[in-house]
User: What shape does this take?
Amino acid sequence: FFFSHIFNRASFRTAVVLIILFSASIYLIIENRLHSYYVHYDARAYLVKSQTLTEKLEVFDAAAVNFFVQNPKYVLFGAGPGLVSIPSSAYLLKRDQAAWPQGLTALPHMGAILQFSNGGLIGLAIWLYFLFVIMRGSLKKQTFGEIQPYSLITVLCLLLYLLQIRYLFLIGLGMGLSSFMNKNEK
Assistant: This one.
């Protein structure tokens, strides 16, 4: 499948165009533009140098994790839907306190931490169950010789949400639910 797809004329043209675009973009990044990239990466050097898990997370995620570590009574049910930014403002890391002197105004960005902070272990378990059901239903449609990209995109989008990409979760959820609707209509 792979080799027959590579040697297809349309695929070959696409690969050539992508190589040309990549080469042109590398050429356009000249030395004076690289300085801004160095500044960007130097500002995030704490990700490599940090010692604890919370120090490696973003400000919103780190504050939420610190809140739950310091207050284990909220682990079972969470802080409530969309409310974790209120109590977690008091648990900012020292590196983030200067940037957020009035407290946090946003929710955690990482999907697993957001679901945990909204509903605790119970809400996270329910969410993971539905995620597993949608992914299992999407992957059941796959056959060995025939790849169905619709199901694979669904699974990919749902898994990316666990990392940090919230809108891809909504796309994956919509695609997964619509595949179940189409299955029920047949």
The mean pLDDT is 77. The two ends are 29 Å apart (CA to CA). Residues 111-140 form the longest helix (30 residues).
